Amino acid sequence: MSPATYLPSFAMLSEELGIPWCHGILKTGHRCHRSHRPGSLADGVVHFTNRRVTRAGIRRFLFLGAMAEVSLVGTDEPWRRFYWANQIVTQWVKQVRIEMPRSATAPYKTQLKAMLASVEPGDPEREEAWLWASR
Length: 135
Description:
- This protein is mainly alpha-helical.
- 51% of the residues lie in helices and 6% in strands.
- It is built from five helices and three strands; from the N terminus they run H-E-E-E-H-H-H-H.
- The chain has helices spanning 10-17, 55-71, 78-95, 102-116, 124-134; strands at residues 21-22, 40-42, 45-47.
- It has a three-stranded mixed beta sheet with strand order 1-3-2, covered by helices on one side.
- A hairpin with a 2-residue loop joins strand 2 and strand 3 (45-47).
- Helix 2 packs across helix 3 (78-95) and helix 4 packs antiparallel against helix 5.
């Protein structure tokens, strides 16, 4: 199938990219108490309900997985974690060959710009992040 039409399931993405995923039912058979509908991240596990697959949903799922990866790096600056997570998502999207429309990425770029507004200019990575968010 062409990348324009193929959308993998969340289970396939989780398996291929190594994203720890809870879809609402624990191994014990009990329901997980975390928020799965909008998706959440807790203890390095992405809590995300198995629902209809959309590009925006895939983007959200991958972003939560990337935030789990970035949390292992350990930086105190939220804008830096947010930017790094978005860079990981970009790599993963290429790896699984999914085309992401601008509309799926736009909210993340807008949020990063808002975070960067309070950061002093001069940091080369801040400038790089601003350029990415402005594209």
